[in-house]
Amino acid sequence: MADMRELFPENVRALLSAFAKPEREGPLRQAAAHRAAKLAGFEGAAGEAGALPDDLGAYADQVALQAHAVTEADLAALKAAGHSEDRIYQVTVGAALGAGLARMAAGLTALSRWGRERPQTPPQTPGSEGAPRKAR
Amino acid sequence: MRLESMRQAHSVPQKIAFTLMKLITGTVPPPVRAFSYGHGFFGEAYSACLQDAMRGPSAWTVGERELFAAFVSKVNHCAY
């Protein structure tokens, strides 16, 4: 998700740096984050992405789009398929963060566009023509 | 709590913090457990972002920010 960084404030960039650490299943959570960001509509997420196993990929999609619908049975099925709790945790956090940051990016992009396109001079009220603006 | 490994503290400081939370509030909130489990690569940096957003300098009051958060959680069907 390196391509997301320039959109975000410094504290979020620090979070992304921490998240990119390779230890403890780093590639797995990065893959989940990338997949979820793309699914949640972040166009910049196209490109590199590690592959997730099908069952973890489907789980990441559910976390990204309908986290409230995840059930005990979903987690039990992943565990029965041989995935450790740590791997499930990594995919959960990755998918949640990726989807959340994709939505944050959409909001920041919309605000930025609004800032560029809004009228640069305030509308004048009757009688205010030519009057000097008061300093605030 | 759906992942058993989230129940445990994973370092001495976490054990102390969890014990204090249980004494004071009677429980350790699941989000705190999730942040603690992935402290190094997620929890610490995420908590800093959360603190900045919810309590840091802003044009919005703390109450207004809490209201925004509650609304988003409601839309997401999230109890927190």
> Helicity level of chain B, as a percent range?
55-70%
Q: Proportion of β residues of chain A?
A: under 5%
Radius of gyration of chain B: 14 Å
| Helix-strand topology string of chain A | HHHHH
- Stretches of chain B where pLDDT is under 50 for at least 5 consecutive residues are none
Mind describing the biggest β-sheet of chain B?
none
Helix content of chain A: 55-70%
Structural class of chain A: mainly alpha
Average of the residue pLDDT scores of chain A: 83
The proportion of strand residues of chain B reads: under 5%
N-end to C-end Cα span of chain A = 41 Å
Would you count the extended β strands of chain B for me? 0
Sum up the overall morphology of chain B in one term: globular
Chain pair forming the biggest interface: A-B, 24 and 20 residues
Instruction: Return the average pLDDT of chain B rounded to an integer.
Output: 87
Question: What is the count of helical runs of chain A?
Answer: 5
Number of DSSP strand runs of chain A: 0
What class, by secondary structure content of chain B? mainly alpha
Tags for this model:
heterodimer, A: 136 residues, mainly alpha, 58% helix, elongated, B: 80 residues, 4 helices, 0% strand
